[in-house]
């Protein structure tokens, strides 16, 4: 008698099913229906992984002791979690007609094309076979004898819709060969025989795709035509890549599956029907970059200009933005990012659309496209594009300034690279035009940055974006494109530098000082290359360096006595009031040292920690001392510490050890600037 034992896991259920498949019903010890229920429930709810799928298929496709009801139930609940291998497909060919796009390697069906076609005279299989053949038909499959056979079948089948549909697919390859009235009958649209199964399959794979992005890596490696994933029911405004108008020895991009095959067949590739598929197909992008075509570019431009004009007209008429625009902009941005060229139709659309833009929809795509605007006089660019974009974002976006600064970072980087890469191509009156445009751009961004910093509501992420902008300005000076030092050195405004020098954020302070150190290296490199800078620029930068060193290293904060020092633009009339205030707190406090490593409100506690780390290290090395330092160090307190039998360390050594300690903990900007500026540190003296 069969025992009703519930399987503990899917593997246990599969093992029970395999045993039951080879055991006659009267000899079984466990009820097979319980295992079948567990397998079908797991498949319906979660899908079957490749191992489980192979196990089930291996059972149902062989002669077994299971009854027909069980076999049918198992087949109807084959919901694969991942792409399906060729071996499984060949075992379940008839079933997989409802999911032709789910195959890991669709070419396995192409190898069976002749066998499948020869079975069309079997009426019970004809509709499914025509559907499958329509999905896998390529030009190499369309032969005169097959066209003749289809016409013969139609003569006796009284214009079977499935046959007419397949014949119309053949007509796309040989429009002049198929003649007569047969092909004009009512064509089948090849509806799927089990839409419920298909819908459930997509739901399972969509959930799995979110947790395992590796499922679709084969389609995303750039050398295979991109196909839609689980959400195939969504109608795309951008057509997919299909090639029908090919010649005898040409190759369709759909048949390319690897980089080696792409290289081998590059010269024989036929252009697809809709070249605008380039917006979302990486393989077509690669092909047209390697084999550019004026005709192809014009076709893409024509489609884009029409599509974008229609969307802009809807918005102008007050009908709002459609979902189609988002898809087109996403595709256009991907194409532009790959080719690094902004198409004229995109430029025209942006100029027309930005005054109507709500500042929120498709921000990433809009700003991504704006970042590829070619270099030209910025005042004109600002009038045509950025004034409207800034107004829309500031009025409506929740975090407007961070995204604006990020846009200008990308644009500045590309314009700088253009100046450096094309320095040798410019001469005469045109030589300074790109440089002037670049300076106009950076001046505009600096004005925007200053207004952001003066806004009390500016967030830390926005300030981080501002620092990233100046990091970019400094970094482009060291790129290979700037070997001729053609990219101008553009300094941040003094107000920006001093507002950030007194920040309450350790990371912001460190990054600012690292930026100043990078600028100093850039000045030194350009001077070595005999590049002369305006005296006002070098004097201003030297003032930044002097003030920073006076604040953090020399204990001469706010002093103007040194050459080029600005005293952080703190009026001398204010300083007596500051000194009086400090004396009310503690007579030992001094204004000139209140911003140094030991007493700076950002660095004080860290300096104490660094000194204690030095004491701990000395203790571990066996040095004995009677006392430890109690708080923030000064020149006087360190001298007293030595006299009292504590750690012996000079004021210079202490500061060096503090900046090294900070550097090992990710706060390297202070050390970088001091070692690039202070002569005794540059020369290795302490």
Automatic annotation (TrEMBL):
Domain of life, source organism: Eukaryota
Annotated keywords: Centromere, Chromosome, Nucleus
Listed InterPro entries: CENP-I
Biological processes per GO annotation: CENP-A containing chromatin assembly; mitotic sister chromatid segregation
Pfam families: CENP-I
CDD domains: CTF3_NTD_HEAT (cd22647)
Localization of this protein: Chromosome, Centromere; Nucleus
Keyword Nucleus in record: yes
A cellular-component GO term for this protein: nucleus
Classification via PANTHER family: CENTROMERE PROTEIN I (PTHR48208)
Family to which this protein belongs: Belongs to the CENP-I/CTF3 family.
Protein name, entry field: Centromere protein I
Lineage: Eukaryota, Fungi, Dikarya, Ascomycota, Pezizomycotina
